[in-house]
Amino acid sequence: MLETRNLTVRFGGHVAVDHVSCAFQPGTLTAIVGPNGAGKTTYFNLISGQLRATEGQVLLGGHDITAEPASTRTHRGLGRAFQLTQLFPNLTVVENVRLVVQSRRHEGLNLWSVWLDRKETLARAHELVKQVQLGDKADAIASSLPHGDQRKLEVAMLMALDPQVFMFDEPTAGMSVDEVPVILDLIRMLKARRDATILLVEHKMDVVRELADRIIVLHNGQLVADGEPATVIASPVVQQAYLGMAAKEAA
Ligand SMILES: Nc1ncnc2c1ncn2[C@@H]1O[C@H](COP(=O)(O)OP(=O)(O)OP(=O)(O)O)[C@@H](O)[C@H]1O
């Protein structure tokens, strides 16, 4: 289980995340919503270790990971979708995924096992590339992919990490309407397949409504609502803080 306790970060006098206490259960997809500047990405950064908390704790499986760097957290099973900047732009799609599979397996120094492992990791990488529907682009150079395909590649790399916790920060941002369903299908597949904890920051309320088991709402860095989607969406605090505006946009 992933948990934050009184998690807080201040930038000068500004409290971007303000004493957020929340536990995320395996087998649950939690959507994190809130207006622009509410602190959603900052909360993600504190959980994944890109940012250090001013106060409070992050716990994963009972371990206090607050002081650990992002790489250690990843090793413990906290997987955040890769950002475009983390791709190797000059490598092919399948090579990018293979590198993640390989890093996850901690290759030994025995050359024979390394060779065998290379074959296996390559096969696994191809499997993942097919799952995200990039099979026909496996040998394309990552930087040459259109934006939507790069996002699919990010998801394949996240799946290659095989984490306990999947963190998606606006996975459909910048995607064309016909590309969105592919990413949603992948997230649905992750939900159905195993006991994963999934955290999703998403502005599109139709996506949130469809995928989320639970919604938490951040506003001015504070957790202002938490519960089942229908209840949270209907709550006055949410309507006022955010969703009224989003609903108008969606209409
Ligand atoms: N490194 C930083 N230094 C100073 N202020 C920051 C820093 N990172 C975030 N902030 C501020 O913290 C607040 C929360 O920002 P954050 O990006 O987390 O919001 P968000 O809810 O993800 O917004 P959006 O939906 O627009 O992405 C904002 O006021 C932002 O300007």
TrEMBL record:
A single MF term (Gene Ontology): ATP binding
SMART domains for the chain: AAA (SM00382)
Record CDD domains: ABC_Mj1267_LivG_branched (cd03219)
Pfam families: ABC_tran
Keyword hit for Transport: yes
Residue ranges of every copy of the ABC transporter domain listed in the record: 2-245
Record bears the keyword Cell membrane: yes
Source superkingdom: Bacteria
Keywords: ATP-binding, Cell membrane, Membrane, Nucleotide-binding, Transport
Entries under InterPro entries matching the protein: AAA+_ATPase, ABC_AA/LPS_Transport, ABC_transporter-like_ATP-bd, P-loop_NTPase
Protein name stated in the entry: ABC transporter ATP-binding protein
